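Fold this sequence, please.
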Amino acid sequence: MDDEPDESAIAGALVRVGKTTKADEINCGACGYNSCREFAKALLVGKAEEAMCHIYLKKNFQRTSNALIKYIPAGVVIGTKVNESHQDPNVPQDLELRRSVVKRIATALEKNYRKKVTVDYY
């Protein structure tokens, strides 16, 4: 009796860990197996877990961190003084340089992280 899993089962196990193409099978050995296919076979018989694959972990961590960045509100408070020891009391608080930096930060948060940004000057 042959206990070897068939190709479709192995392919299904590889998909479970995010390996959908032959190029995804990097055979790094980080999981403790010599190849991704050996790992997939062990996964099928319960001798391995998805979390043993560092590529799987990396993709999950990326998804989780992206979700956190996207959905958790973030506040940024920028003070009125760039460096207190060098602050000239005659320089207006709405210094254009400061506004430019705030605008760049706000734009980056909106474009890269899809954050809703409101800028208020006090």
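The chain has a mean pLDDT of 82. The chain has four helices and no strands.
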